[in-house]
Amino acid sequence: MFPPSLVYDCRHATTLPGTPVANPANSADATVKRACVEASSVAKFYWDVFGRDSIDGAHMTLVSSVHYSTKFNNAFWNGAQMTYGDGDGATFLDFTLSNDVIGHELTHGVTQHSLGLAYSGEAGGLNESISDVFGSMFRQWEANQVATQADWLIGAAIIGPVAHQKGFTCLRDMAAPKAAHALAAQPDHYYPGIGNLDPHYSSGPPNLAFCKAATAIGGHSWDKAGKIWYKAQTGFGPSPNMTMPQFAARTRSLAQSMFASTPAVHAAVDAAWTAVGL
Amino acid sequence: MDDVKIEQLGGVVGGFSPTSHVHSEGHVAWSALSAEDRARLDALFAKGAAVNANLRYRLTRQGPGGPQIIEATPEMIPDVLLRSITTTID
């Protein structure tokens, strides 16, 4: 029913995808097993919650490569697959340790096959935000948390001992983008020109807007706010250069049409965007 | 030619934003590169095309008219340059 989840071992080389791993779901290599099982779990999340069949909506095979390069401090989507580094053991640990990171990377694939957002400008910030939003939502879904229980941190489980010693506990904090405990703090308010900066920086305001909307609506983030964001992402065809005001307007409109009998949902979405300057 | 600087952008980490505390970058002396890698980099710098990718690298070298800066995806970059990258926290 769910798409196949394949894992390849780069064996510390940088050529993708690497060597195929047989039966990765039962591998003795915990990294291989996590990459396989968690990618499958993200696919299940997209199917159970949004009715989406894999990354492309058409049962696309999930491909993950692990042990990429040596002490590689990142994870990425390359247009066809997910790739995870082992971390250097100081700043970062194995990038498969954070299930929200796996949700984040797979969601870049979903975005590629729906809105088709670019990786620069305001669209780039939206692209990164949508990956953070669905990565965090997936983490909450696996833990069966309501929005008020969630910590809204991105990458909390990959922070290494040296970063921890310096007081950093996550890559980003969706609920408090400017927080000092975030390795890459972000602005919490939109301003014209924000799109000229790194998308991982400009994603702060839309991240906070989703967090505020989901928290104000209450319950599970994926039940209402998540369904609005998903429809905004997948329901209108490609829009590679979409701006943040355009995305905000779309979610406001969807909140009204999808939850017409519950005006509090639109009020929460409207207030959330207004709070971040959009 | 002095050296080539490489900076990692994107992925889940990012690391190139104004308030980021984490930076991943490296340097390789031009003289330490193989003839094949130099030719590959010369071609990359000459092309200088924009890259629309989740993970990409910014490469900088001094040219006759000042610094030359391009972006490239990992498969476009010589492995020796990728492996020179280390991560620091400020």
Automatic annotation (TrEMBL), chain A:
Claim: Glycoprotein is one of the keywords in the record: no
SUPFAM superfamilies: Metalloproteases ('zincins'), catalytic domain
Role summary: Extracellular zinc metalloprotease.
All copies of domain Peptidase M4 C-terminal, residue ranges: 116-277
GO molecular function: metal ion binding; metalloendopeptidase activity
Swiss-Prot/TrEMBL GO biological process terms: proteolysis
EC number per UniProt: 3.4.24.-
InterPro entries, per the entry: Metalloprotease_M4 (IPR052759), Peptidase_M4 (IPR023612), Peptidase_M4/M1_CTD_sf (IPR027268), Peptidase_M4_C_domain (IPR001570), Peptidase_M4_domain (IPR013856)
UniProt keyword Zinc present: yes
Protein name: Neutral metalloproteinase
Organism: Endobacter medicaginis
Short name of one Pfam family: Peptidase_M4_C
Domain Peptidase M4: 7-112
Localisation per UniProt entry: Secreted
Cofactor entry: Zn(2+)
Family statement drawn from the similarity comment of this UniProt entry: Belongs to the peptidase M4 family.
UniProtKB/TrEMBL annotation, chain B:
Protein name: Uncharacterized protein
Organism (species): Endobacter medicaginis
Lineage of source species: Bacteria, Pseudomonadati, Pseudomonadota, Alphaproteobacteria, Acetobacterales
